[in-house]
Design a protein that fits this description.
- This protein is an alpha+beta fold.
- It has a domain of about 150 residues.
- Helix content is about 30%, strand content about 20%.
- The protein is built from 7 helices and 9 strands.
- The strands form 3 sheets. Strands 3-5-8-9 form a 4-stranded antiparallel beta sheet. The protein has a 3-stranded antiparallel beta sheet with strand order 4-7-6.
């Protein structure tokens, strides 16, 4: 496996990420990434690594052991549902990703889906194929697995100890977060209408997340 120099515009890697391989473009390759034909496919996760992270409390980004706190890097809609398909990270690994990941730090970048990715293993739940423009680091003490109703696992995150909203590699404003939630809400409403009582539950969860938004 070749490794290359880190792109100069990226912020310094946390100590735990120092040992990650670096791809041809100069991006460190997170632990979860699936390698296809000797090349990292950042849009696809390695299912074996997913199981390792969940079973052994390993960081989704660096692959090292987690401590007491679990930092989930999620989108606003996942925050509303308190549900994600991606295991937890160290806080510093999550922050580095929020600042430097091209998809997370560039609101106008679209998620490309082609045959190469479509044929890769997928975890459960309904994937929302959009760039929300805002990401959230949700720090909690616990999480639990549950069945998505189709035989696939999802993760329910516990009550937040702290939250950090990010956009364009910096802390997000309240307006940016509110706009992102408003633009994604119709997608959740459409899904909720297929289940009895789900719409009411959705609006309840929206009210619960209001205090977690940035102050300004």
């Amino acid at each position: 496996m070749n490794t290359y120099d880190i792109r100069p515009e990226l912020t310094d890697l946390p100590d735990r990420m120092q040992g990650l391989p670096v791809d041809k473009r100069g991006y460190p390759v997170p632990y979860f990434v699936l390698w296809i034909d000797g090349e990292p496919e950042f849009r696809a996760m390695n299912p074996a690594r997913w199981m390792q992270c969940v079973s052994h409390r390993l960081c989704w980004v660096c692959g090292q052991r987690l401590g007491k706190f679990l930092a989930f890097l999620i989108g606003p809609m996942c925050a509303v549902n308190r549900t994600t398909s991606e295991p937890a990270c160290h806080l510093e690994c999550a922050r580095w990703s929020a600042k430097n990941c091209p998809f997370l730090s560039r609101p106008h970048m679209h998620r490309r889906v082609d045959e190469r990715v479509a044929n890769a293993h997928a975890i459960g739940g309904e994937m929302i194929r959009r760039n929300p423009g805002v990401s959230l680091i949700w720090v909690t003490l616990y999480c639990k697995l549950f069945n998505d109703g189709k035989g696939q696992p999802l993760i329910e995150v516990g009550d937040p100890q702290s939250v950090e909203w990010w956009s364009e590699g910096r802390r997000a404003t309240r307006g940016e977060v509110s706009s992102s939630i408003a633009s994604g809400l119709p997608i959740l409403e459409e899904i909720a209408r297929t289940e009895q009582g789900a719409i009411e539950d959705l609006y309840k969860r929206l009210r619960e997340i209001e205090p977690l938004l940035p102050a300004a």
